[in-house]
Amino acid sequence: MFSQVLLMQVAIAAGVAVLATGLFLAPLSDQLDDQAMRRALAIAQTTAAQPQLAEELTSTPPTVGGPVQAEAERIRKASGAEYVVVMNTDGVRWSHTDPERIGDVVSTDPGQALAGHEVMEIDSGTLGRSARGKVPLRDADGDIVGAVSVGIEYDSVRARLLNAIPGLFAYAGGAMAVGALAAYVISRRVQRQTRDLAFSDIAALLAEREAMLHGIREGVVALDRGGRVRLLNDEAQRLLGIGDEAVGQPLDEALGEGRTTDVLAGRVTGTDLLTVRGQRVLVANRMPTDDGGAVATLRDRTELEQLGRELDSTRGLIDALRAQDHEHANRMHTLLGLLELEMYEDAVEFVGEVVGDHRATAEQVTEKIHDPLLAALLVGKATVAAERGVALWISDRTLFPDQLIDPRGLVTIVGNLVDNALDAVAGKQHARVEVELRAEGRTTVLRVRDTGPGIPAEQRELVFTDGWSTKKPPAHGKRGIGLSLVRRLAERQGGSARVAEADGGGAEFTIVLPETLAEPGLAPQPGLARGPRLVPDSGPPHEAAVAGSTTTKEESR
């Protein structure tokens, strides 16, 4: 490859030198011809301006020793012209370089000069090819009595041109040598940068790179030093939701503002950075390049996060079932003791109370929440709350119809917020989580309050940021996704998500989701002075906990 590049560059330099020389010589020849003709004309004009020349032409015959011949020869020798010919109106020479031609008619037509015009030309005469200038000769009264013709040998002009050619070629050769040296230096640099690969090898590598980039299952984004998108493979386009039109655009313009843009642009540093784009959970890594740009890779962890959340839900379900099994054994032992003591009436009453507790819990939820998925979710969360020593309450303002357009989306939001609230109050005395869910026309308003430590005012926006969390990450990955997804789900429906301080301390999350109901829902009805509690602080878990497996667990605080 090195020799190919060198030869091509030398050939280009040589071609440019020859072309430049030709382009230079062509106008130079014309310039020299023009200069010679103007010089001849100037000599002719000077000769014709001699005051005595016209008088001598009309008063003396055309002889070798005549005054006209003498004056013409003086001017010819002084100017270096090839000839100075003075003629009368009939074209008869009164002077000539060759004395034998004096008295003869000139060989070229003097008509234009005798008509009063000045002439510049290159023509052939008795002395050969020459640059000529012809002017009329006037007497004292201004009448034309003849003409003056001056010639400069054309061969002398050609000689000047030929004498200039060696110098021109010397300059051209020098330029070519400099070009060859520059070509050598550039070729060596290209050789080092391409690792002495041939053009065919580079083309093959490029084809392989394109196939690899667009075939791998990992998104690749290449940026130049100005932060513009230089390359996007197919997977990156799919994960980021953009197309080929983003290539060449600044990253902020192609993706818009957000954590994903900050991560790819390098404004957020670290490895395996977590970000959310649309409904996808992505892990990004960024590697700077030597030219000032960067290459970022993106991995889709949406399915992994979903599996992790399902695993968390399964573990919670197992814990709830274990607690139920333990509590069921205690009840069976109590019932067996009552039967052995022949306290049959007490045994019947005990069984009735247990069944009534289970029925009351489910009925309290379904009276307020008519959507089956949401009701099953909260009944399941009640079991988890009871196991963790937390009271889960339904607000007295809760009244929600079975008219949801997207129940799964609201289930995800409620499940995440309740899980966060349970984590916030776990281990505290008189721990309580309150859920308020109501319809205002076609708008859904959700509030989840807890009696935990609350969220400082300066961190209330950070809790909705991808990857932000104050808790240790779970076994399956990172935290800081749940509340971000909650806000994204709300904003996708044109709603909002915010957090404030609850009455009496703790945190209160408020989610507003417009246009989520198929038709106008029921107006909120005033409830009891005290909202129904799903599970007492020490109440037993129950079978409805199985419904808790429908939620997704995302923890961000």
From TrEMBL:
One Pfam assignment: sCache_3_2
Sorted alphabetically, which keywords does the UniProt record give? ATP-binding, Cell membrane, Kinase, Membrane, Nucleotide-binding, Phosphoprotein, Transferase, Transmembrane, Transmembrane helix, Two-component regulatory system
Listed InterPro entries: HATPase_C_sf, HATPase_dom, His_kinase_dom, PAS, PAS-like_dom_sf, PAS_fold, sCache_3, Sensor-like_sf
Q: What is its main location?
A: membrane
Q: Does the keyword Cell division apply?
A: no
Domain (Histidine kinase) spans: 406-517
What transmembrane ranges does the database entry give?
A: 6-28, 168-186
Q: Which GO terms describe its biological process?
A: regulation of DNA-templated transcription
Where does the protein end up?
A: Cell membrane
Its Gene Ontology cellular component terms are:
plasma membrane
The EC code for this enzyme is 2.7.13.3
Which intervals of the chain are annotated as region Disordered? 520-557
Reactions the enzyme catalyzes: ATP + protein L-histidine = ADP + protein N-phospho-L-histidine
Task: Tell me the protein's name.
Answer: histidine kinase
Q: Which organism is it from?
A: Streptomyces flaveus
